[in-house]
Amino acid sequence: MAVNVDHRDCGDTDAREVIRRALAAADQTGRPLLVGMQRPTDWSFEDQMALLRPGDVVTYMYRREPHCIIENGRVHPALREARERGILFDVGHGFFSFDFEVAEAAIADGFAPDTISTDSHAMHVGARPAHDLPRTLSKLIAAGMPEADALAAVSVRPARVLGLADEIGKLAPGACADLTVLQRSPDGPPLTDAFGNQRKSCCLQTALTVRAGSIVERVPSGDD
Questions:
Q1: Which pTM value belongs to this model?
Q2: At 224, is the pLDDT very low, low, confident or very high (cuts 50, 70, 90)?
């Protein structure tokens, strides 16, 4: 389940009541709640985090001001305390929710994402900056996240969050035969965040997609 209490989505609606109702629905269904936070100037990070349960997920974690999680060069203590008691954190790139400088500061301070997502939907097809999953994954690596951790954040960790670790996110007998083969593209365009900041870094691109054991897409290589 997901809820976004950002001021642009809530408007004049009481964000606290929105969260209360979302948590009640999540309790009834036994599911984690994915949350887009309110500006801390309107509702403190401390109070927002106090409502969440272990296993709930905060998304849009690398936004800039007025939602920025970095305070005086460090991750806000309320968010670090939330992680220590089991709250998870997700990227959710989208149109406005990924800033390279925020990501770099947070990762350098030991606050990498638990999961990496794009926040993509139909409106995002062909959007700029490009934020498909391979490119968003590449941006996190460019921001300083170890490659092995970044790959886990788009596979095994999301599977665990969704309670599907026995079915997806791994290579094992009995798991879904859903695979993506990535290849490095060192000569691709620079990686760009939601505000036009760029990092020149090797970008991962999809070479092969397999669904339920069948190839559904194969990108020809230069040798084909």
A1: 0.92
A2: very low
